[in-house]
Every structure is written in structure tokens, then in C-alpha cells.
User: Which sequence fits this backbone?
């Protein structure tokens, strides 16, 4: 399948877009991810016409990807789409992680607030790692405070390590000795 996806990305056949849009919502997460990568390979004019159609999909991941692209292009629909998708209750960790990995340069507070809310006792360490990765470019006071609180409240070694490293990268070196 990977070869087929790669061929679609390389060919950039406009006839593939309607077919992809017709089926992408029914794909599993990895297929949706590859489908978005195929769409992203098209020229910007084609992408601008195509990406908004993902807002109407049932998949939170596809709606998030649409929002991410719209945000990057300055379209006001982008932020609400990302926030709504990130707030879907009971979203599986893989989908949420894929979303978080697409936030590398988003600095919009409404989005960051939703991501920051995931820094909470009981968070799965794998998810926490993705959350902190998404927030690393914007280590603001609220995120630092949430990390401090989690460091103190959660005694799991991996959670303490992840929060200590984040805090260290934000300039707070005191907790590293506690976890090394």
C-alpha cells in the first residue's frame, strides 16, 4: 500500500482527488494520514479548494487536518476546527497523538489551552510526551505551571521525567536531579 500512496503523491493526478475525498473518511487512521499527505502534495491552489472539504468529514483527525491547513493559510475556520477535533471526548490516543504531532508551529492560545489541559494527573505517558512536544515551542507560564503541578502530583517515573525535561528546556533545572 505504501507504494500506492507514494505513486499518488508523485502523480498528482487531479482525477484522484474526488475519489480520495469520497473514501478517506472510511479509512483507518493510518490511511487517513496517508490520504492527507497525498492531498498535501498537490499545488497550493488545488489544496485550498480541497482541504476545506475535510471539515465535513466524520473523522476528527480529518477535520483537525483541515483546520490545521486553514489556520496556516489565515482562514478563520482553522482554529475552531482544531479545537473542536481536539476536544472530542474519548478520542483514542493514536488519533490524538497524530493531531498533536501536527501542531509544531501553532501558537494560537485557544488551541494551546486545549492541549495544555491534557497535562493532568493520570495522563498516559505516551500522550504526555506528544503534548509536551506540541507545546515545546511555546513554554508559557501556564504550561510551565501545569508541568510543575503534574511533576509534584504524579509519582510515575516516566511522567516525572517528561515533565522535568520540559521544565529543564524551559530554564528550570532543579527537578532534573530528582529524576536522573
Assistant:
Amino acid at each position: 500500500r505504501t507504494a500506492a500512496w507514494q505513486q499518488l503523491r508523485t502523480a498528482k493526478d487531479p482525477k484522484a482527488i474526488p475519489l480520495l475525498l469520497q473514501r478517506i473518511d472510511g479509512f483507518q487512521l493510518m490511511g487517513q494520514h496517508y490520504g492527507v499527505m497525498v492531498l498535501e502534495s498537490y499545488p497550493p491552489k488545488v489544496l485550498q479548494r480541497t482541504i476545506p472539504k475535510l471539515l465535513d468529514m466524520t473523522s476528527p483527525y480529518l477535520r483537525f487536518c483541515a483546520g490545521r491547513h486553514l489556520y496556516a493559510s489565515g482562514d478563520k475556520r482553522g482554529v475552531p476546527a482544531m479545537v473542536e477535533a481536539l476536544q472530542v471526548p474519548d478520542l483514542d490516543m493514536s488519533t490524538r497523538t497524530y493531531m498533536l504531532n501536527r501542531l509544531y508551529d501553532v501558537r494560537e492560545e485557544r488551541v494551546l489551552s486545549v492541549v495544555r489541559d491534557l497535562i493532568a494527573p493520570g495522563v498516559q505517558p505516551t500522550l504526555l510526551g506528544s503534548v509536551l512536544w506540541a507545546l515545546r515551542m511555546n513554554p508559557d507560564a501556564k504550561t510551565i505551571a501545569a508541568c510543575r503541578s503534574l511533576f509534584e502530583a504524579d509519582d510515575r517515573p516516566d511522567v516525572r521525567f517528561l515533565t522535568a525535561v520540559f521544565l529543564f528546556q524551559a530554564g528550570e533545572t532543579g527537578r532534573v536531579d530528582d529524576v536522573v
Notes: The longest helix spans residues 60-72. The mean pLDDT is 92.
